[in-house]
Amino acid sequence: MNDDSGARELAEPHHVRRFEELALPHLDAAYNLARWLTRNDHDAHDVVQEAYMRAFRFFDGFHGDNARSWLLAIVRNTCYTWLRQNRGFRVNTSLDELRDSGAADAALAAIDPSEEDPEKRMLREDDKTMLNHALGRLPEEFREVLVLKELEDLSYREIAAITGVPLGTVMSRLSRARKLLHKHLQTSAQES
Amino acid sequence: MNCAEAKDLVHLYIDQELDLVRVVEVDKHLQSCAACRALYDRQRALRSTLKSDGSYHRAPPELRERLGFALRAETKGAARPPARWPGRWNTGLAIAATVLLSVSAVLYLALPAPHNRLVDDLVSSHVRSLMVNHLADVASSDQHTVKPWFNGKLDYSPPVDDLTAQGFPLIGGRLDYVDDHPVAALVYRHRLHVINLFVWPSENRREQKLRASTRQGYNLLNWAQAGMEFWAVSDLNEAELKQFADEISAMSAPHQS
Predict the structure, then answer these.
(1) Minimal CA separation from A115 to chain B, in Å
(2) Are A57 and B81 inside 8 Å of each other by CB?
(3) Whole-structure pTM over 0.80, yes or no?
(4) Do A109 and A73 share a structural domain?
(5) What is the rounded distance in angstroms from the CA atom of residue B241 to the CA atom of residue B108?
(6) Which of A177, B139, B238, B256 could tie A142 with a disulfide, CB 3.0–4.6 Å?
(7) How confident is the model at residue B52, as a pLDDT?
(8) Which residues pair with B219 in a beta bridge?
(9) Which of B198, B208, B191, B201 is nearest to B256 (CA)?
(10) In the prediction, which pLDDT does A73 show?
(11) Residue A57's domain is classified under what CATH number?
């Protein structure tokens, strides 16, 4: 029943290798999500490292077939924990639907061109920068569905598994996120 | 199909999440309705802009390196004496190891007793759970919420009971990592004291009476019953922690198969 010490010693690096084989191919996806949620490289770096160590510790408990979804869910949770601890960010799942309906309008109302400094205005001349800027300013729940859908090309089902919300909420968030982003871009285009 | 329906479905249509019948319906509608067609074109354009111009942040190489290093460091730190999971020293095997593998046996004996390691792990898990504000992954006083939460996360199902009536309300549950293995940590409260109850399958389904120990000012109670090993850790005084253990023990027995 118990391992002998020789077998155990060999088993440990193998365990690491197996984890690396499974988890490292998704490191870019993990980093991209963390980078978009934390909005800076340094924090994304720390969050991904913490998330991967967490994943490694719970690796024995992973029996699923979708390692990417499993990892991205851990990365996402680690991001939100980090945001909560460092930026007073609050996620209230019970208010999900309310946020879904209210957040878009609130975010739209918050677009005030006079708030932007000249530096940001100059950056906007570049369409690409404008797009990324607009995406970065979306509320987290919209930003994450767009990143997972458009940049990672995941299915609704995978996004639901990662974000822990029902499929219907993924659909409504995605359509709201696109509408909101479109409006952001239109507003930006009109000003430039 | 009318416009309202088409508007609801256009995103699913773009994302190829619709079944074939609906795809044909949306197709038909888009051909006949200019307004919906414009909406579709707009969303599709936005989608391709995002795909082509959205920044994809790749992991920097140093992160990859740092991870490889951290993983190995973690494994080294966790490389511990054998014969430690799920139970304690197995005397029979220890003797066999001594006889058969004298070299291993020397190493084996030179290492600290796994029991101490386990107790260290449990106490640090308890302290960590208080420090980083990470008491529970699933925060609920409802045993029927907490118990199913562990499904798929562990290869066993820990008994979960609410002891609110007995003065020990259930706060939630957490996956924790003890002695190199993921375990169920159930969180209870008594007045202002937090009790972490760690549960995992016991070796040989042996029964073990309550055993008390202390470490760094924390009280620990350990027992095994009905195929499960229990460790309660708290800063609560021993008498009250024993009362808690007795209540859990009384509740747990009939839940086991």
Answers:
(1) 24
(2) no
(3) no
(4) no
(5) 34
(6) A177
(7) 87
(8) B214, B234
(9) B201
(10) 94
(11) 1.10.1740.10
| Residues in chain A closer than 8 A to B17 (CB atoms) | 155-156
Cβ-based contacts of A5 with chain B (< 8 Å)? 81-82, 97, 101, 104, 107-108
Q: What is the largest CA-CA distance in chain A?
A: 71
Token couple for B43: 């969303």
Residues of chain B under the 70 pLDDT cut: 76-115, 131-133, 253-257
Residue bearing tokens 């077998």 = A7
Tell me, yes or no, whether A183 and A118 share the same domain. Answer: yes
Domains identified in chain B, total number: 3
Residue B131, domain extent: 114-255
pLDDT at B128: 78
Q: Are residues B25 and B127 in the same domain?
A: no
The per-residue pLDDT for A89 is: 56
**Which of the listed residues A59, A87, A115 is the one where a domain comes to its end?**
A87
How many domains in chain A? 2
pLDDT digits (tens, 9 = 90+) for A16-62: 888 888 899 999 999 999 999 999 899 999 999 999 999 998 887 78
Q: Are B146 and A53 in contact (CB under 8 A)?
A: no
pLDDT for B81 equals 36
